[in-house]
Design brief:
- The structure is a single chain.
- This protein is an alpha/beta fold.
- It has one domain: Dihydrofolate Reductase, subunit A (3-Layer(aba) Sandwich), CATH 3.40.430.
- Helices cover 22% and strands 25% of the residues.
- The protein is built from six helices and nine strands.
- A nine-stranded mixed sheet has the order 5-4-3-2-6-1-7-9-8.
- The longest helix is centred in the N-terminal third of the chain and has 11 residues.
- It is globular and about 45 Å long.
- The model has no long low-confidence stretch (mean pLDDT 97).
- Bound molecules: 1,4-dihydronicotinamide adenine dinucleotide and the ligand Nc1nc(O)c(N)c(N[C@@H]2O[C@H](COP(=O)(O)O)[C@@H](O)[C@H]2O)n1.
- The site of 1,4-dihydronicotinamide adenine dinucleotide has 29 residues, from strand 1, strand 2, helix 2 and helix 6.
Length: 218
């Protein structure tokens, strides 16, 4: 029987004070060694998923480059379908399978614009992307594992409904501060600690001054 959702790993590099980017959007927190570890992980999953702001601010490739291995399918949450044609993801989507996930809120003109790009479009949700429904749709497509690479708003959407299985954080030796700098988890947050998912520390790995923490959801 098909599982109702793929195995979901949340992954990010944070500063010691829990930020994933500065207030100006600088997010280069990982080290070269950590990059190699991350790319090995990327090569083992079926898909990598990010939110629209991460595409806008980082213009990422989301490919496997620092090790040998296959590129996963790239998935972008983009309710209104506003991803730029000039983004690296769209520019390389002929060669690397890419899915843009929109909601029913998308305008006809934005949908028509998206259809011209070599991407698959999935519609899931009324106003913003319904993560539970999306995971179900990805399961139907035989996507068995998804690496969620942020940002903070996207992380919250997975965390608030317990829709993840594992969390891998690279604690980087920086202190960023700033109330408007992006945190690992954005959104409304939980009102009580008891509402938080409970995590078990599965392993730790020191990479010079970076510390990779691997938690599983209990
Ligand atoms: N250090 C790290 O490991 C990483 C850092 N970043 C940083 O995070 C920042 C971006 O984070 P955020 O602003 O929080 O945005 P985000 O990257 O999580 O994107 C959020 C946007 O995605 C779209 N979206 C549609 N449906 C959604 C849904 N159901 N859930 C969530 N998003 C949905 C919406 O337009 C929403 O505003 C950037 O500065 C980036 O550099 C991003 C990834 C990893
Ligand atoms: N693990 C990790 N460490 C960092 O320091 C990061 N900034 C990120 N960010 C994620 O990786 C994306 C960049 O991917 P490419 O190198 O362009 O393939 C970035 O957009 C975030 O999703 N992750």
């Amino acid at each position: 029987m098909e599982k109702s959702k793929p195995y979901v790993i949340l992954s990010a590099a944070t500063s010691i004070d829990g930020k994933i980017a500065t207030v100006t959007g600088d997010s280069k927190l990982s080290s070269k060694l950590d990059g190699i570890r991350l790319h090995k992980l990327r090569s083992k999953v079926d898909a990598i998923l990010v939110g629209k702001n991460t595409v806008l601010l980082d213009d990422p490739m989301l490919t496997v480059r620092h090790t040998k291995g296959k590129n996963p399918i790239r998935i972008v949450l983009d309710s209104k379908g506003s991803i730029s044609k000039n983004s690296k993801i769209i520019q390389t989507s002929k060669k690397i399978p890419t899915i843009v996930v929109v909601s029913n809120k998308i305008t006809k003109s934005n949908l028509e614009r998206l259809k011209k790009f070599p991407v698959e479009i999935i519609i899931a949700g009324k106003n913003s992307v319904d993560i539970k429904l999306l995971l179900k749709k990805l399961s139907y497509k035989k996507i068995k594992s998804v690496l969620v690479e942020g940002g903070g708003t996207t992380n919250w959407e997975f965390i608030k409904n317990g829709l993840f299985d594992e969390l891998i954080i690279t604690l980087s030796p920086f202190l960023i501060g700033g109330k408007d700098a992006v945190s690992l988890v954005e959104g409304d947050g939980f009102k009580k600690i008891t509402n938080s998912p409970i995590l078990r520390l599965k392993s730790t790995m020191r990479l010079k001054n970076h510390l990779v923490l691997n938690y599983v959801k209990v």
